[in-house]
């Protein structure tokens, strides 16, 4: 095959890069999808991922524009560049989907996740858990004599790191919201 | 103009305002109010099918042969689930269909009520979009939006689920013009920069080929006209997928015939050896590409498609153009003419010399000898005796379908109705009914195999009831021919369940339905029998008994590239490797 001429995509103002270079290397992408907040729209998105065999690492959804009936779905997914391009194109053709943004390639973005972690124990371990929570700027939102519930926000990596540290200190349960993400700047 | 009316009346009014003249359907408890409204009007003709799958295929046949959306009306539960195969078929072949389903009353949804099914849930992956309408005031707008979605962009099936209480309740009717069509407005104009790049490639190409598909047909007759102009003006060769037959005439000078797994030798080798491939409204389906990593290795590829997700899905292309085929072809012609109508004549004439050599192989040649009718002969005679007629051809799925694509010639778009993407056995009979409804004076033939035909034979009742003179031309080999062929080539000639020991007497079956039956097993009688079929004013079941062990060639074995084609019975042993055997 002749070498691909990489120029800009043929569709201006498009989220899709139509002349991508493909490699077999898997990448993690954060994709924001603006959808009509109507019944079944989340099922359409999830059904697309399961039906076509794509990965979902995390997914969050909530209405973000009450008057416009718009919800924002933030999906963290993993795949080769060709699969990522397909995912975006397939999302884009779902009828109630308004916009698809690949935050990983469209400039820099901020990503945050919130998690609640229940840690049970006493004695030194309890003190150590509290000390580490302070370092990670986690808040105690519930406390008994034998347990804490910590609330932590940050990138998924930071939450992973905190959970790893809590595990030997009596981590009982974790609840995570999944990633919310926005592009930086105006 | 807004008016108060019941939801049921609204359905009929909305269909009329959308220009619908025919609805294919089957009544049941959850759609009785709509059927009551249909009873009390004359503007819309309702065709009572015998099975809901038949309703959807008939609507597909209607849609493909007219370019207008097909409409179905079925009841809740089993009515809706029976429609699923038809919806999936229409989704894979991009056919605009609007299916209206009844649903149990809103207050009973979720209670496992009688004939309740989660219709929007079940049909979500097999429709372009679907809606459950819970508010009568929104019903008419949703129906108008459904027509918009089904017919714009890449066409497809849509479904509206209407609970029975919504049909009974009164609400305000909104006419189509006042309905906001929403944000769903697919791009139809292609990017001019890429179009210019393609024109430059057209000017320089030494070994170009047009590879066209169903998108040309879907774009309307104007797109076929532009395609013909471009192909003939450039003098490039053109091949087409199964779905695109008729967009360029089979008698045209650039025509190479169909490509793909059972495509013509010259078409597949042109695809393999070209230096410029111009894909117009096709989607690099696996029946076309064969082995991906050996697909047309030396070419630059342009891909015109209205659906961005088709680009780079299977084959990486160099010049992607998103837009409607008609619009893009118009722009290509405009730019190419403005730049002086240049082509590489020297390269082209060498290319055609090569193609003529491939054509000399005459990959479709066969010999009719002996007392048994060969299927290729049956279709050649059918072609000869019907090609001058105002003719529409439907097919079922299997060997007969491929032979029909190979041996019948299509001069115009919308004349060829076949299940391409999904490969639905049982498609042809109801589709032929839908076509005949739309074209009452035309000759409508369903080329079938006996096994496929039995899958929806109940629709003969529909044909007889509405006096539709559809001709069911059955190539009867008492086998699932394509399955048998694969078992021969791939599974050590172990013919597991690929034949039928208890076929009906098709002539008696025809008579039982009130149709005419014709039997023919002698090559010498075939022409007369076909003429008898054509001249009979009414539905016919033609039992054409053919050679039982005929294989369909040429064939690109699974997992092989275009230049590894099997041309005939010779050397078919071990033609398909182990890795190819897992592919379907």
From TrEMBL, chain A:
One of its GO terms (biological process) is isoleucine biosynthetic process. It catalyses: 2 pyruvate + H(+) = (2S)-2-acetolactate + CO2. Pathway: Amino-acid biosynthesis; L-isoleucine biosynthesis; L-isoleucine from 2-oxobutanoate: step 1/4; Amino-acid biosynthesis; L-valine biosynthesis; L-valine from pyruvate: step 1/4. The keyword Transferase applies. The keyword Amino-acid biosynthesis applies. GO terms for molecular function: acetolactate synthase activity; acetolactate synthase regulator activity. Gene3D superfamilies: 3.30.70.260, ACT-like. Chain A, domain 2 (3.30.70.1150). Its EC number is 2.2.1.6. Pfam families: ACT_AHAS_ss (PF22629), ALS_ss_C (PF10369). Keywords: Amino-acid biosynthesis, Branched-chain amino acid biosynthesis, Transferase. Residues 30-105 form the ACT domain. GO terms for cellular component: cytosol. InterPro entries: Acetalactate_synth_ssu, Acetolactate_synth/TF_NikR_C, Acetolactate_synth_ssu_C, ACT-like_dom_sf, ACT_dom, AHAS_ACT, AHAS_small-like_ACT. It comes from the Bacteria. Belongs to the acetolactate synthase small subunit family. Catalyzes the conversion of 2 pyruvate molecules into acetolactate in the first common step of the biosynthetic pathway of the branched-amino acids such as leucine, isoleucine, and valine. Dimer of large and small chains. This is Acetolactate synthase small subunit. The gene is ilvH.
UniProtKB/TrEMBL annotation, chain B:
Binds 1 Mg(2+) ion per subunit. Binds 1 thiamine pyrophosphate per subunit. It is an enzyme of class 2 (transferase). GO terms for biological process: isoleucine biosynthetic process; L-valine biosynthetic process. InterPro entries: Acetolactate_synth_lsu, AHAS_TPP, DHS-like_NAD/FAD-binding_dom, THDP-binding, Thiamin_PyroP_enz_cen_dom, Thiamin_PyroP_enz_TPP-bd_dom, TPP_enz, TPP_enzyme_TPP-bd. CDD domains: TPP_AHAS, TPP_PYR_POX_like. Keywords: Amino-acid biosynthesis, Branched-chain amino acid biosynthesis, Magnesium, Metal-binding, Thiamine pyrophosphate, Transferase. It catalyses: 2 pyruvate + H(+) = (2S)-2-acetolactate + CO2. One of its GO terms (cellular component) is acetolactate synthase complex. Gene3D superfamilies: 3.40.50.970, TPP-binding domain (3.40.50.1220). Residues 397-544 form the Thiamine pyrophosphate enzyme TPP-binding domain. Its EC number is 2.2.1.6. Residues 5-120 form the Thiamine pyrophosphate enzyme N-terminal TPP-binding domain. Pathway: Amino-acid biosynthesis; L-valine biosynthesis; L-valine from pyruvate: step 1/4; Amino-acid biosynthesis; L-isoleucine biosynthesis; L-isoleucine from 2-oxobutanoate: step 1/4. GO terms for molecular function: acetolactate synthase activity; flavin adenine dinucleotide binding; magnesium ion binding; thiamine pyrophosphate binding. Its cofactor is Mg(2+); thiamine diphosphate. Residues 195-331 form the Thiamine pyrophosphate enzyme central domain. It comes from the Bacteria. Belongs to the TPP enzyme family. This is Acetolactate synthase. It comes from Pseudoprimorskyibacter insulae. The gene is ilvI_2.
């Amino acid at each position: 095959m002749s070498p691909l001429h990489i120029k800009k995509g043929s569709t201006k103002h498009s989220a899709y890069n139509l002349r991508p270079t493909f490699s077999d290397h898997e990448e993690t992408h954060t994709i924001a999808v603006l959808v009509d907040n109507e019944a079944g729209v989340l099922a359409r998105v999830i059904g697309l991922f399961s039906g076509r065999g794509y990965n979902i690492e995390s997914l969050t959804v909530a209405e973000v524009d009450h008057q416009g009936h718009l919800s924002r779905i933030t999906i963290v997914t993993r795949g080769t560049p060709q699969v990522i391009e397909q995912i975006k194109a397939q999302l884009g053709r779902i009828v109630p989907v308004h916009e698809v943004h690949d935050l990983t390639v469209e400039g820099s973005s901020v990503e945050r996740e919130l998690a609640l972690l229940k840690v049970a124990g006493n004695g030194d371990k309890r003190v150590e858990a509290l000390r580490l929570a302070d370092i990670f700027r986690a808040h105690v939102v519930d406390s008994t004599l034998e347990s804490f519930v910590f609330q932590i926000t940050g990138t998924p990596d930071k939450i992973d790191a905190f959970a790893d540290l809590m595990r030997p200190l009596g981590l009982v349960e974790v609840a995570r919201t999944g990633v919310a993400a926005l592009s930086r700047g105006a | 103009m807004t008016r108060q009316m019941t939801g049921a009346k609204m359905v009929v009014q909305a269909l009329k305002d959308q220009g619908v003249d025919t609805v294919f359907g089957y009544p049941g408890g959850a759609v009785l109010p709509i059927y009551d409204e249909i009873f009390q009007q004359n503007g819309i003709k309702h065709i009572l099918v015998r099975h809901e799958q038949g309703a959807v295929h008939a609507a597909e046949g209607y849609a493909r042969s007219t370019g207008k959306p097909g409409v179905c009306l079925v009841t809740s539960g089993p009515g809706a689930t029976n429609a699923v195969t038809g919806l999936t078929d229409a989704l894979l072949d991009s056919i605009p269909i609007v299916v209206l389903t009844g649903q149990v009353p809103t207050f009973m949804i979720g209670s496992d009520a009688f004939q309740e099914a989660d219709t929007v849930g079940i049909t979500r992956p097999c429709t372009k979009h679907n809606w459950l309408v819970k508010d009568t005031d929104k019903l008419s707008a949703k129906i108008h939006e459904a027509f918009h979605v089904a017919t714009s962009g890449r066409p497809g099936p849509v479904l509206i689920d209407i609970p029975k209480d919504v049909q009974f309740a009164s609400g305000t009717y909104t006419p189509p013009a006042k309905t906001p069509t929403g944000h769903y407005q697919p791009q139809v104009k292609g990017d001019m920069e890429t179009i210019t790049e393609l024109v430059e490639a057209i000017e320089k190409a030494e070994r170009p080929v047009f590879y066209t598909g169903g998108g040309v047909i879907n774009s309307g007759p104007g797109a076929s006209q532009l395609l013909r102009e471009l192909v003939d003006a450039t003098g490039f060769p053109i091949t087409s997928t199964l779905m695109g037959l008729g967009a360029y005439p089979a008698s045209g000078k650039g025509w190479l015939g169909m490509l793909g797994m059972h495509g013509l030798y010259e078409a597949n080798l042109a695809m393999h050896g070209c230096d410029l491939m111009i894909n117009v409204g096709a989607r690099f389906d696996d029946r076309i590409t064969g082995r991906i990593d050996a697909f047309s290795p030396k070419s630059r590829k342009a891909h015109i498609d209205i659906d961005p997700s088709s680009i780079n899905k299977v084959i990486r292309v160099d010049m992607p153009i998103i837009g409607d085929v008609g619009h893009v072809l118009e722009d290509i012609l405009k730019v190419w003419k403005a730049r002086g109508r240049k082509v590489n004549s020297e390269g082209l004439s060498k290319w055609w010399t090569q193609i003529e050599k491939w054509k000399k192989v005459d990959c479709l040649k066969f010999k009719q000898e002996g007392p048994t009718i060969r299927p290729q002969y049956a279709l050649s005679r059918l072609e000869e005796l019907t090609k001058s007629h105002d003719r529409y051809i439907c097919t079922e799925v299997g060997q007969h379908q491929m032979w029909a694509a190979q041996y019948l010639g299509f001069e115009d778009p919308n004349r060829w109705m076949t299940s391409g993407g999904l490969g639905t056995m049982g498609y042809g009979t109801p589709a032929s009914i839908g076509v005949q409804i739309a074209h009452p004076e035309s000759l409508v033939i369903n080329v079938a195999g006996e096994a496929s035909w039995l899958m929806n034979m109940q629709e003969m009742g529909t044909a007889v009831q509405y006096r539709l003179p559809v001709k069911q031309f059955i190539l009867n080999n008492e086998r699932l021919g394509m399955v048998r062929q694969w078992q021969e080539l791939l599974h050590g000639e172990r013919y597991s369940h690929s034949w039928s020991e208890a076929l009906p007497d098709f002539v008696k079956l025809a008579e039982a339905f009130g149709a005419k039956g014709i039997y023919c097993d002698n090559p010498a009688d075939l022409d007369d029998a076909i003429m008898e079929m054509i001249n009979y004013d009414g539905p016919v079941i033609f039992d054409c008994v053919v050679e039982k062990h005929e294989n369909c060639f040429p064939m690109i074995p699974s997992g092989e590239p275009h230049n590894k084609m099997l041309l005939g019975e010779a050397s078919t042993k071990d033609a398909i490797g182990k890795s190819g055997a897992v592919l379907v």
